[in-house]
Amino acid sequence: MFAAGSVAACAITMVCATGPAPASHSALTLTLQTTDGAARTVQLNCDPASGTHPKAEEACAALSEADGKFGSLVKTSVACPMIYAPLEATARGHWQGSPVDYTTEYANSCVAGAESEGVFAF
Prior knowledge:
This protein has a single domain, classed as Subtilisin Inhibitor (2-Layer Sandwich). The protein has a 5-stranded antiparallel sheet. It has helices at about 5-20, 55-65, 110-115, and strands at about 25-35, 40-45, 50, 85-95, 100-105. The chain is globular. The longest helix has 15 residues, at about 5-20. It contains 3 helices and 5 strands; from the N terminus they run H-E-E-E-H-E-E-H. By secondary structure, it is of the alpha+beta class. Keywords: Disulfide bond, Protease inhibitor, Secreted, Serine protease inhibitor. Its main location: secreted. Homodimer. This is Subtilisin inhibitor-like.
């Protein structure tokens, strides 16, 4: 039989051994690729916002509002030139521990930024 003090010590040890729950981390590789194969790639890390994305904080905030769902990003009203220069946009990585594998196409880089709430504005 364990004494009450031994049980308490075991409970404390178990809590200390496991430590706090890890913070959910989001890390994405975002790529814009033209039809001729030229590509631009940035890293976007959230929780905290960092990486090579030029506006990481704003992109992370937009994705947080959309619960990490790229299709739910708010389209912003921006006057974009009507130049057809298609881009394939991809996002690969993890959003709050869940895998992300997203691909879509935009008419040009201005539209990519406007229709992704700035996530693909780089």
